[in-house]
Amino acid sequence: MAITPKRLGRLDDAIASLLGRDIAASGKSRRDLARDTGMSTNRIGIILRHEPPPATVGEVGLLAAAVGRSASAVIAEAEGPVSEGDETMGLAAASDSDIDAEVEAQQVEP
Questions:
Q1: What is the DSSP secondary-structure string of 6-53?
Q2: Cys-Cys link to 71, which of 1, 18, 59, 60 (CB 3.0-4.6 A)?
Q3: 33-74 pLDDT, tens per residue?
Q4: How many whole angstroms separate alpha carbon 26 and alpha carbon 67?
């Protein structure tokens, strides 16, 4: 069975948008970011183009730090507009049962 790539959720999309905005404001090129973060320019491009797979928390932290922010600040800013009216969208708002149900839905039978 073919594995379908994970689509970006609204929070992933919001994080990529904020990182793109902050990176553009910094004037840094993808090459500068690659040097500063140790990430490949290809991976940085994937994240900034909002392509799957979504950025990991570690990648968010590296990119945010390269432009003078923290991962937690970027994620908190992204959660605001995304979670308004949808209590399950925020990272902190998801319950264990929501997470368990999502994990079960993504498991692939051999």
A1: PPP-HHHHHHHHHHHHHHHHHT--HHHHHHHH---HHHHHHHHTTPSS
A2: 60
A3: 999 999 999 999 999 999 999 999 999 999 999 999 999 999
A4: 6
pTM: 0.71
CA 34 to each of CA 24, 55, 78: distance values in angstroms, whole numbers, following the listed order: 15, 15, 23
Largest Cα–Cα separation, the chain: 47
Which amino acid does the sequence have at 74? V
CA–CA dist 87, 51 (Å, integer): 25
Q: Which residue matches tokens 């308004």? A: 84
DSSP designation for 90:
S
